Structure formats: structure tokens, C-alpha cells
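Extended Data, panel c. Modelled sequence:
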Amino acid sequence: MAIEASVTLRSEHVPSVGRDRIRLLQAVAREGSITAGAKAVGLTYKAAWDALDAMANLFGQPLLETRTGGRSGGGARLTPTGVRVIEAFGRLEAEMTRALRGLEPDLAGSGISPFSLFSGFFMRTSARNALRGTITAIRSDTLAAEIAVAVSDDKTIYALITKESLRELGLCVGREAIVLIKASFVVIAPGNDPPAVSVRNCLRGVVRRCEQSAVSAEVVLDIGGGKTIAATITARSAETLGLSPGKPACALFDAAHVIVAID
């Protein structure tokens, strides 16, 4: 599989800028107008303006010069800063791609890809549970989509996201993804047979550890395949359920509480 890097630029309190927004900037410059550029990359006029504003906020100066009305009509063209941003972004991705390809021989046979290595180094999240897997199925309607992500040979996690998020993230079957679940969203049921409830996700496993304080407890469940999932529950619940290491248990959580992230 050919490897290439995808760069995302961030700044505190400012939306991130990645390849999709750089493509928008290129399309606006190529088409000569924001309306045509937005259409070329499949965005609404408003979404395009929001993205362009975000880029101007991130870089601290305008990337486009716009004109309105007049005999020749409105239009847009890159500022010198806009030209430099596109060129620098392309060089940055090319350099990162070269570095990633250089890592392949060192990772051969390890089961770790350069993609997962880099995301493991750099991804920061407040969610206690972050599991990498592969999208195996997508079901969608006009508003929402259910994404199935296989995180091991026999464990699949389901996420419910909006149709807009499905499109913006470019999710498709076969693509790698990361599922994020806050520990406080996970319910633990003892034994291998969970109660009949409406939650979409039920992961069977074995309690690896249960750490308690006076009020709360963190239960870590080994779900196989080298993967674990953590839950934050009350200390009284942990004692009542008898969640000691080695005991079978199930982790239950709703699909709407699962966030899908991509590299």
C-alpha cells in the first residue's frame, strides 16, 4: 500500500486546517471565485466561507483577495501569503510522506503501520478509551449513519454519527479509524450474559483490574486482541458486582456515545 502523509495545522481556539481546506483554497484560486471553488470541492457557499475564515484566523492574514460587482463581476484570487501557504503545505506533506516511507522497513513484521505509530505519538484526547480498528460496514439514511469498526478479530464497536460527519471525514468500508469512548459512558455488567438493554455496544471480556477510591472505581476490561476498555463507576457498584480481576464481565455503551476519528 502506498503511504502518504496528511498534515493538519492547528492553533489554540482556532479550527484546524487540513488538506481538504487547502484543496478548497486551490479550487477558489483555480476557478476565480468562491462560489465556483466551493462547488468544485462539494461545499456550500457558507461552508466554504467558514473554512476560508478559519484559515485566515489560523494564519493571521488573508489568503484571498476578493472583489464584488463591477463590469467583470465578482471574483477571488490568492494573496502572496495564500500562494506561500499552499506551496509550504505541499512541501510539508511531501517531507512527512518521505519520512513515513523510510520507517516502513523498521516496522516490517511488527503489525504496526507508520500511520498508527504517528497517531499514537501525537494524538491527544480526554477520552479514556481510544481503540484503532477498520470500518467494516456503514448504514445511513438522510440524517445519520451507523459505522461498524472492527477493533479486533471478534470485537466490533458501533458509532452513530451525522450524515454530514460521514461525508466530511470521508469514511468508507476498509478505512482505518479510531473510536473514542469516555469511561463515564461505559456501563459494566458482571458475567458473560448481559441484561437485555437497548444499547448498541456489548463487549464481553475479563476484568483485568479494578482500582477503587472512597467514591469511585475504574474498571479495566480485557476484551481480547490486546485491547482493553475502561469504565468509571461508583465504588459501591464495584463492590456490589464483585468486579475482581479474572471475573467475566461485559462493557455496555450506546452508539451515540462513540466518537469516530481518523488520521
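The CA atoms of residues 38 and 44 lie 6 Å apart. This feature is highlighted in the accompanying rendering.
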